[in-house]
Write a structure and sequence with these properties.
The chain is built from 14 helices and two strands. With 312 residues, it is mostly helical. The chain is globular. The C terminus is likely disordered.
Length: 312
């Protein structure tokens, strides 16, 4: 089924049968309180069985948040291309779509595109035609043209692409502007041309986010190594909600764990700001640590003596 066709009873039944293992796993994962599903895997679709199954799926949908769906699908081996197609069909075939349905559809389109697009894809290749081509199995054939009400998307993407640090991306407002535009569109979001445009936008923003996130993490790790070379073993990280004397070794382990966490949840709010603040704390320590830390002063003085060598 695509965005422009109405599913038959057999198609609805096939979608629900395919998604039953996924939804059952979601119920277990997030301890969702719903009755047992009234049908079993592989049930024969009939008007009555599909009606009962859809009612159960709607109960689960009402309690599953988009961040939970994102977390689950980005960490489970069950989320293959076919499952993502069924999930998108399930969302788009709903007669009445909520804000949550829109956000889930938006995430699923980007996840589907990420799975199907080549890993070495260049930014210059990510035009609307290419995105529409990759999404054709779920949205149907399109001749994409950016709707007039979405013309600001290009400016927002250009603003995000100019960011050189994660803090700049957070403060430039690109994420908020994109969400606001999506909310203003309301039901127009589900027009195929709009879904293609937003899928491209969200994929580009996610790509920019990951690049800046890795740059920040690498800058922090490089900074910690430099501080340790100077003899600094703790730094003041209160701005990042850590202690005034946080061990550099512990900060290194935290950064390694964040690489895994942010890969699964790129829109995390509080941890993301902690990362930005931690880089600022490390930058401050690099600029001022030697002046404030007697041990660091000695280490720096020793390293500058004639004949003194340092071994990395």
């Amino acid at each position: 089924m695509t965005a422009s066709t109405r599913p038959s009873l057999e198609e609805q039944g096939a979608t629900l049968c395919a998604l039953l293992p996924i939804y059952s796993a979601l119920v277990r994962e997030f301890v969702i309180e719903v009755p047992a599903c009234p049908v079993e895997e592989g049930f024969s679709p009939s008007a009555e069985s599909v009606k009962h199954a859809e009612a159960w799926f709607q109960q689960v949908d009402a309690q599953i948040q988009v961040h939970q769906l994102r977390q689950f699908l980005q960490t489970t081996p069950l989320a293959n291309e076919a499952i993502l197609r069924h999930l998108l069909a399930h969302q788009m075939q709903k007669a009445a779509k909520s804000t949550s349905d829109r956000d889930k559809t938006d995430f699923l389109l980007v996840q589907y595109f990420s799975l199907c697009a080549p890993s070495g894809l260049e930014d210059a290749d990510l035009d609307l035609d290419y995105v529409a081509q990759v999404l054709e199995p779920v949205l149907g054939p399109q001749e994409p043209k950016l709707p007039e009400w979405l013309s600001p998307l290009e400016t927002i993407m250009q603003s995000a692409a100019r960011c050189r640090r994660l803090s700049e991306l957070l403060h430039c407002g690109a994420l908020e502007q994109g969400r606001k535009l999506k909310a203003q569109g309301a039901a127009r979001y589900f027009e195929p041309a709009a879904m293609v445009a937003f899928a491209r936008f969200s994929f580009m923003i996610r790509r920019i986010f990951f690049r800046l996130m890795h740059d920040d993490l690498n800058a922090i790790l490089d900074g910690l190594r430099e501080l340790e070379r100077r003899g600094v073993q703790t730094i003041d990280c209160r701005r990042a909600q850590f202690s005034a004397e946080e061990p550099t070794g512990r900060l290194r382990m935290i950064c390694q764990s964040w690489k895994v966490m942010f890969h699964a949840e790129y829109s995390s709010g509080q941890p993301l700001r902690m990362l930005v603040d931690l880089r600022a704390a490390v930058d401050d320590a690099l600029q001022n640590g030697a002046r404030k830390n007697p041990m660091a002063k000695s280490a720096v003085a020793a390293s500058t003596k004639p004949g003194a060598g340092t071994k990395q």
